[in-house]
Predict the structure.
Amino acid sequence: MKKAVYILLFLILGQAAFAASPKKTHVIGFYNVENLFDTVHDEGKNDYEYLPDGANKWTEETYAKKLGNMASVIRAMKEENGAYHAVLGIAEVENRRAVGDLVARPEISDAGFDFILYDGPDTRGIDVALLYRPEVFKPLHSKSIPYTFGGTVDVTMTQEEKDAFVTRDILMIRGLLDGEMFAFFVAHLPSRVGGKANDLRSRGAEIIYGECLRLMEEFPGIKIVVMGDMNDNPTDDSMAVYMHGKETVAEVGKDDFLSPFLSVLKGGQGTLSYRGEWNIYDIILANSNLVNAPKGTLGIVKDNKTGYYGHIFNKPFMTQQEGEYKGTPFRTFSGGKFIGGYSDHYPTFIIVGTK
């Protein structure tokens, strides 16, 4: 009898310990690092302002300061989250040297980040890249997807303007995150500068969405994360219509995406400020397979404190503390002068964990 009691007690304690054991979680994020250029001219690119004798007087010293600032933000996110990102998409980086110098910084070298970057057609030479920790994420296939015209979006440009138009490619990486099939898209959609019409960004979203549908057909159950500086808010057509971004889990159908930062924007938060108005252009979306993940597999996790699935990282050291732009992201340049800041965007992230 006593032996049976001990066995029963052992089983109960074992079950309790299993129930209390921490679930596996991973941080997936995006950061527009605002013009992370090296100090060397890239042939065929208009990077002259980011040279030692260029308009920005971009010396090895200022370059090192910029790298250190970016690394310190990534490190600070690690300290808050308890782990480095499993995957971190970045935008506005010039080339492989710049990314390599970033991941080698002493602030984050212990993360062991590897990265994927393709040299794209942007005239200034800025690209997107994906940092990842090889012990967590194992890439199987990657490609650079060009921006093309066509589809259902009728872009308001002449054929001559379309022929001359150049913008960043979209990066796609498919691989195994903790053994599960994932795909990550990193984008930097066409800028609003110069009054560029929003249909350019809608076309970019349409390209990404079409690629997502093809992946979901080829790899049933694949979990997809789309991230980037979309130069649009989650409420704009590019994200809400052409990326099928939905605000709530209940709205997410089989071919839809959860748009976590839609609620965050409505809640008054932002990643960048323009003329006194907060926007969230730094968007992350999750497909239905990640939102409605089977039990025991990785799915997007809600913050029970905030009620949001999306997170903005905005600490005081990354924020302007005085002057006209007090309270906004502490940027690298102001009035054409290097002010030693971080970025004009705050980074964003989501958490995925076992259900």
Remarks:
- Helices lie at 2-20, 60-81, 96-103, 159-164, 198-218, 237-242, 260-266, 288-291.
- The longest strand covers residues 25-36.
- The chain has eight helices and 18 strands.
